Amino acid sequence: MSLSDRQSRLFLEPLEGKTTAFRVNDRPANLRFGAAMLRLLAGGRQGCRLLDLDAFYSSNLEVLARGVPRENLSGFDIMLPEPGSDTEATLAAVFLQGGDQPLLIDSANTLYQLLSASNPRAATRKFAFFISALSSWAKSNGRPAIASIYDRRPALHRKASRSLADVFDNSVSLSVKPDGLAFRCERGTAWRGGGFFLPFELR
């Protein structure tokens, strides 16, 4: 199912200049979200840099991009880190490669886990620093920086209730409906009225 340029504009423009965490309940919900995002970004003709930390998009691209004209995907750049690669160098490359395309990260959970691997005590600080730098990048370029988060709501610190989504400018919940996807901005500012319904079916 394709999405119109108008739908892309209405969905993406309120997210420009901000970091937004989209909370998904499980892998099927993330599959629906990923397919919708590819169509929205392709419809906007902006291209996209995709930091594919879970190899989710790379391994499911045929399903996720089904029905999307190939020429609309020509501006998509998938960054798939090699196993065992330096996570901090990968994150630095997000900025060093330049460009002003929207950024899509899958997933913030895996990003936090990778930052925890070498020094668990520093993971919270490094994660928050990267998202803060990403927010500055989004503001200066006027582009959205979007990340999926599996909604297990992991705490950034054992003694705190703050979740990964809380360091983003916006935190958005996603509900999968029979006829589409319902988004609700729980924190921050996004769409008029705080919500957005996207008629969408993944076939």
Which structural class is indicated by helix and strand composition? alpha/beta
Question: How would a crystallographer describe the biggest sheet?
Answer: 8 strands, mixed
Counted beta strands: 8
**Rg, alpha carbons:** 16 Å
* Percentage of residues assigned to helices: 25-40%
Average the pLDDT over all residues and give the rounded result: 88
CATH architectural grouping: 3-Layer(aba) Sandwich
H-E string: HEHEHEHEHHEEEE
Strands across the major sheet, in which order?
A: 3-2-4-5-1-6-7-8
Tell me the name of the CATH class.
Answer: Alpha Beta
Poorly predicted runs of 5 or more residues: none
- CATH topology (level 3) name: Rossmann fold
Number of domains: 1
Strand content: 15-25%
Superfamily (CATH H level) name = P-loop containing nucleotide triphosphate hydrolases
Can you tell me the overall shape?
A: globular
Euclidean distance between termini CA atoms: 7 Å
Tally of separate helices:
6
